[in-house]
Write a structure and sequence with these properties.
- By secondary structure, the protein is of the alpha/beta class.
- It has a single domain (about 10-295), classed as Aldolase class I (TIM Barrel), CATH 3.20.20.
- The protein is built from 12 helices and 8 strands.
- The chain has an 8-stranded parallel β-barrel, surrounded by 5 helices.
- α1 crosses α2 (about 55-70), α3 (about 85-100) runs parallel beside α4 and α9 runs antiparallel to α10 (about 230-245).
């Protein structure tokens, strides 16, 4: 396995669907072009925002093959691995490797809340099933399993584990991981509304949600952070924050897709049980989105 140099902005790309809920690969690729033109550094397909658990196995493989061919090595393409069993996760890891992806973003098994021993065994078993580098995704608020800094230290002997997407909501975790593991892992922020704090604590990458709807603004924020211009970044971050809070909302997928639709970047259709927003919730979201468009730091640029 070759060394990886993942860093920068990797949007968690939404999976586009038609109004009959069928997979819309063409629209997904069109949106990827918008992100690439904005200058993103990588792509993560079939994560939470990509509705991994709402997409059939054969659809995942079909989508990944299309994305890999379309991107054509311009940036790394990762895929989420979020399955109900370790065996099925291994099958997807193997299929994703055959499809040509550059890496995996692996979650604990879905539904069952595994303990420390079971969680580590799950990740190690998937690592044995593939030659691909792996980003471990920690999101205990959403998935009920916490991968602690001590667990990352225990798993540090597996060379395929190269990166961490930290989404615990506790920005102190970045420091705890570094104190235990040094520079062993590439650290990514996985929560939009903790980006500035995470970069200050050592994150070198961002798995972004709202950048799908506001790619220019997202790249502006990242570039300011990358240059160490925290005063400039704070101004953009404060403008962005009402939108970035969408990423921590239980309906983040619907909210991000709605923002994309308002911007003309795709459909807001989600597969049930997720339903498109309506009523006061929809009015609040659209008001927030339109206010951001009207006051964008990239307006007129």
């Amino acid at each position: 396995m070759a060394a990886v140099s993942w860093r920068g902005v990797f949007p968690a790309v939404p999976t586009q669907f038609r109004d009959d809920f069928s997979l819309d690969i063409e629209s997904t690729l069109k949106h990827i072009d918008i992100l690439l033109n904005a200058g993103v550094h990588g792509l993560v397909m079939l994560g939470t925002v990509g509705e991994n658990c709402s997409v059939e196995f054969h659809e995942k493989v079909e989508l990944l093959k299309a994305v890999v061919a379309h991107v054509d090595k311009r940036v790394p393409v990762l895929t989420g691995v979020a399955e109900y069993t370790t065996a099925l996760a291994c099958r997807l890891a193997e299929a994703a490797q055959d499809a040509g992806v550059d890496g995996l973003m692996v979650l604990p098994a879905m539904v069952y809340k595994s303990d420390k021993r079971e969680t580590i065994a799950h990740f190690r078993t998937i690592a044995k099933a593939t030659d691909l580098p792996i980003m471990i995704y920690n999101n205990p608020p959403a998935y009920g399993v916490d991968i602690t800094p001590e667990m990352f230290a225990e798993m540090a002997d597996e060379p395929k584990f190269v990166a961490i997407k930290e989404s615990s909501g506790d920005v102190r975790r970045f420091t705890d991981i570094v104190n235990l593991c040094g520079d062993r892992y590439i650290l990514f922020c996985g929560i939009d509304d903790l980006l500035l704090e995470s970069v200050a604590a050592g994150a070198v990458g961002w798995i972004g949600g709202l950048i799908n709807a506001f790619p220019e603004e997202g790249m502006l924020l990242w570039n300011l952070l990358e240059r160490g211009d925290f005063e400039g970044a704070r101004q953009v971050y404060r403008w962005f924050m009402p939108l970035l809070h969408f990423d921590s909302h239980p309906k983040l997928v619907q909210l991000i897709k709605l923002a994309m639709a308002v911007k003309g970047y795709g459909s807001e259709f989600t597969r049930p049980p997720r339903l498109t927003l309506e009523g006061e919730e929809r009015e609040w979201a659209i008001k927030t989105i339109k206010r951001a468009i009207e006051t964008s730091p990239c307006k007129g640029s």
